[in-house]
Amino acid sequence: MSGADIGLALSVFLACSVEAVEALTIVLAVGATRSWSSALSGVGAATLALAVIVTALGPALTSLPIDVLRVIVGGLLLIFGLQWLRKAILRAAGLKAKHDELQIYEEEAAAARAAGAAPAGFDGYAFTIAFKGVLLEGLEVAFIVLTFGANQHRVPLAAVAAVLAVLLVVFAGFAARAPLARVPENTMKFAVGVMLSSFGMFWGAEGAGASWPGGDAALLAIVPGVLLVASAMIWTLRRAPGLAGAEQAMPGEPHDRATVSA
Amino acid sequence: MSRVRGFAIGVWEFVVGDDLRAALGVVLALAFTALLAGGGISAWWVMPLAVIVLLALSLRRAARGASR
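Output (structure tokens, whole complex):
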């Protein structure tokens, strides 16, 4: 397994773990308060939809010419990576509320209870909320699996890393029978942001015709370089005058959840 | 029609996110890289520089919004 393969597997594994923790919170909330069978049906339907998306788009992407693929994938990964990195830096600097799985669980459970009593059979509410939660969180992972995997022609490796992450989170979640509040989500998101941005700029530049000094070995400098720059930005923001206590003014995760949160 | 529009907006928000300027900056940096490389000029340095500048500007905008 090459260094790029390890980077691919690690990025997908971390990204998928974070998104799976967030999806698990939603499923646990509607499952525990309404109907486990309907919530799990929603999970199954969303997983199927994600598998269809990856299976359908994977071959289409890998059939593109390598330079076209690299510039498109590199650009998209970089745009995505910068979003993840920006949010993680803002949270680490105390300028954005951190993800609180317990709070989100309570909010989801309260909303599920407020929706009325669950019917005896199929519960459309539990199905829909679980389906939406898993599909929305999973789309980002599917995107990363497809772009990373297609670019290295290793979609199966990316898919295996994603499945392993989901299995680990599901096992941990059902063993704990509670949201995984202790998972260092922001640190993992920060790591994913660093990896996506690094690989994105590497492939994007190569696809646009540039040659990196040292070829693939340049990644050994790019990844630590992005990590260093991002860490320096956290350090700078933490010490910036006039920003102390600004966290209250920033929208927290419950708002992000309405769209697709990174 | 509203479903198509909703889908298009969803895809846009999914890919571009909440910072259009950063996304445009990435596209421009890639175009500049292609321009230099096409002219036979070393261009590998463009993307790292662009990432530092775009991330710093994006954080600056967010931090200013937070401090208001």
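Chain B has a mean pLDDT of 87.
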